[in-house]
Design goal:
7 strands, Glutaredoxin, 9 helices, alpha/beta, 5-stranded mixed β-sheet
């Protein structure tokens, strides 16, 4: 079990040619003229020359996982650490997810497993628990997309019980049951499990992803995701030969 945060900043460049450090809040690229701020960089594990960094495989590949989409036998599993109050997560959901669904998920090449976090506070936590409750009615993806509509985060009032109930009913779910489930035991337990996992990995910014065992940080252009996923597919095909 990993007890040292993944030194993502050291190995992310291998994937996309740039370094994007984990930090508090939403992951984004710094402005071109921004001065480096060393105090914002997370502690990094020292790596000896030629030493490979071992990244854990966090994919659960559970066919009963109601927050996942895609074939359990897909060659690439994307673990997505997200937050419903993260503006970059909302942009990624609106701008990139549809392409990945059409190009890779629907063709059996990609599986996406979400881990909703509480980086932005109480609304994030309540939204994550509501999303798990929606998942218990097979409505996770619909809820996720509804709360990211137009590439914008939902207002804090959207997570009040009466509005969550209305949203659930709009999406064809039982609103009363959603409220009951999000205040029950299972949904909060799953959310806490996801939060603990992210903390163990050193994930403190969203969106952050693992493509199989390759870290990928930020709501980058869709083309970057396509390139990275294609690379993982080719690697998987080579391993199968």
């Amino acid at each position: 079990m990993w007890i040292i945060p993944i030194p993502v900043a050291l190995i992310i460049g291998l994937l996309i040619g740039i370094q994007l450090p984990f930090g508090n809040g939403a992951a984004s690229e710094p402005a071109p003229d921004a001065a480096p701020q060393e105090q914002q960089q997370p502690p990094q594990q020292q790596q000896a020359p030629g030493e490979e960094v071992e990244v854990p495989d966090m994919a659960r590949v559970d066919p009963e996982d109601p927050t996942a989409v895609g074939d359990v036998d897909a060659p690439v599993v994307m673990v997505a650490y997200s937050d419903f109050q993260c503006p970059y997560c909302a942009k990624w959901t609106a701008n990139t997810l549809p392409t990945l669904m059409d190009k890779y998920v629907e063709t059996g090449k990609l599986r996406i497993e979400w881990r909703d976090l509480d980086i932005f506070g109480d609304e994030s936590l309540k939204a994550a628990e509501a999303a798990q409750a929606a998942a218990m009615q097979d409505g996770y993806l619909d809820f996720h997309e509804e709360m990211s509509k137009g590439g914008k985060i939902a207002k804090a009032s959207a997570f009040e019980d009466k509005n969550l109930k209305a949203t659930a009913e709009k999406l064809g779910m039982d609103g009363d049951q959603l409220i009951k489930d999000m205040n029950g035991v299972h949904a909060p337990d799953v959310v806490q499990q996801n939060i603990d996992e992210a903390m163990e990995l050193g994930v403190t910014s969203t969106p952050s992803f693992l493509l199989n065992k390759t870290p990928f940080v930020g709501a980058q252009p869709t083309e970057n995701f396509i390139e990275a996923i294609d690379k993982e597919i080719k690697a998987a095909e080579k391993d199968d030969q």
